[in-house]
Amino acid sequence: MFTQLTSLFFFSLLASMAVSSAIASSDQCNEESVVSNNNQNVLQKHVAFFDRNKDGVIYPWETFQGFRAIGCGIGLSTVAALFINMGLSGKTRPESSFNLKNHSSGKFPNLLFPIEVQHIAKSKHTSDSGVYDTEGRFVSSKFEEIFHKHSNSNANALTADELSGLMKAYRVPKDYKGWVASYTEWKILYILCKDKNGLLHKETVRAVFDGSLFEQMEQEIARKKDVASI
């Protein structure tokens, strides 16, 4: 996404990165979908970490604060905030409505570049893994497929080479924006979260998709700061 540049993510962010919370039928939900307890689907939860004041709208300064909270430097956090919000704002703002509270309408550009969490699935890029469906729900079979097909040296982790193979496998021909978005998301995730042996673990990847990793990272950063101040 990082023109979409990470839905970090990565939102992804990098990550990312929804139409109104769409809940699958009970059978589908049991088999394939995970929906959070507060009626957000997992893609919304993935990006909601960056909604620092929890008003449903993410502004660039909130994206910046979120990246700083998970340990990113000022430079990366600034660039990420600019690219993510500029890339995703228009995609997540409904064209048929105008919100007086948030001064938000998809028909008119908003120079504050707000991202509406409720509509984050509208920013979902192509050339992705399919772990999020078109409504922002988590598809467990697609997630398991990542490791079944690409984790050859370790059943529950990816090496740098395996990650590169994964990204190539999901590329749609001539979908250059999708390639860049996917590459950015996965590379940032790998750089931030690989272990000392260069492995990106399955539990870590899942935590990114459901948004819980960001909270874990923020808590760890805060804990280290507390220890350092003693």
TrEMBL record:
GO terms for molecular function: calcium ion binding; monooxygenase activity. InterPro entries: Caleosin-related, EF-hand-dom_pair. Keywords: Signal. Residues 1-24 form the signal peptide. SUPFAM superfamilies: EF-hand. The keyword Signal applies. PANTHER family: INACTIVE PEROXYGENASE-LIKE PROTEIN-RELATED, PEROXYGENASE 3-RELATED. Belongs to the caleosin family. This is Plant seed peroxygenase. It comes from Papaver atlanticum. The lineage of its organism: Eukaryota, Viridiplantae, Streptophyta, Embryophyta, Tracheophyta.
